Amino acid sequence: MPAVGEKGPRSEQDLSEYLALEGGDGTGKSTVAEGLGSRLEAMGHEVVMVREPGGTELGEVVRGLVLDSDSVAPWAEVMLFAAQRAQLAEEVIRPAMARGAWVVSDRTYYSSIAYQGRARGLGEDLVRQINETALRGTLPDRVFVLDVDPALALERQHRPDRIGREGVDFQVAVREAFRDLARTEPDRVLLLDGMRSVDDLISTILGTIEP
Ligand code: TYD
After folding, report:
1. Ligand 1 centroid to 63 CA: how many Å?
2. DSSP string, 163-179
3. What global pTM score does this model have?
4. Which of 211, 208, 206, 155 is nearest to 37 (CA)?
5. Which residues contact 208 (CB under 8 A, 6 or more apart)?
6. Is 124 in the pocket of ligand 1 (CB under 6 A)?
7. In angstroms, rounded to a whole number, what is the distance separating the alpha carbons of residues 182 and 133?
8. Quick check: CB of 166 below 6 Å from ligand 1?
């Protein structure tokens, strides 16, 4: 079994990658993730699209619990996000990667580091450690963060969920956390100006992953 934080063995012809879109609420990452998936498919790749929280039967139930419940204790929130993520890695992402499919994810455990670790103040290192333990080495190869002014991003939200209703200061903390992650992990996390057009963002993303 690979050590926490390491990738498992990949076959020599397996050039696929696990790509993720990240950002605060209303930054447009779902649209970019969908467009990126379509472009990769048009290039002839098998693409598996996933979203967090969700992406499995268990994960969709957890999504309802964590986003729609009136009250969720902060550490319960961390554990629910980590639980749905462990299930997604086991049931969908590891098998997809093993057969050489590309995975495009709308959010990953980097959201937990930013939202729960930083904005809720639970500690980024501890939240990272919990998630990396649960993921058993299935970590995203590249994380693309859409950076948008939270005041503008929140205006785009039609029906914010429980976490989206935390307000602008919370989203400012989330944004700062993502910016710091891009600074401290430049090999994995790339910050992109989320005000750019979707096509432009997708081209930039593809430019960084194509040889
Ligand atoms: P998402 O469905 O991506 O919502 P949006 O499209 O509005 O950004 O995510 C739902 C909410 O859950 C969002 O407020 C971010 C939050 N979230 C966390 O707080 N921690 C996590 O680990 C994840 C995956 C999401």
Report:
1. 9
2. TGGG-HHHHHHHHHHHH
3. 0.93
4. 206
5. 142, 190
6. no
7. 22
8. no
Q: Domain 18-207 has what CATH class? A: alpha beta
Closest by CA position to 33, among listed 44, 22, 25: 22
Which amino acid does the sequence have at 111?
Answer: S
Q: Which ligand 1 atom lies nearest to the CA of residue 115? A: 19
Q: How many angstroms separate the most distant Cα atoms in the chain? A: 48
pLDDT tens across the length of the chain (211 residues): 444 444 444 444 458 999 999 999 999 999 999 999 999 999 999 999 999 999 999 999 999 999 999 999 999 999 999 999 999 999 999 999 999 999 999 999 999 999 999 999 999 999 999 999 999 999 999 999 999 999 999 888 878 889 988 999 999 999 999 999 999 999 999 999 999 999 999 999 999 996 5
Closest ligand 1 atom, CA of 162? 14
Structural domain boundaries in the chain: 18-207
Strand partners, 145: 22, 191
Could you tell me if the CB of 81 is within 6 A of ligand 1?
A: yes
Model pLDDT, residue 14: 54
Matching residue, tokens 């593809």: 206
Residue whose CA is at the smallest distance from ligand 1 atom 12: 163
Tokens 């976490």 appear where? 163
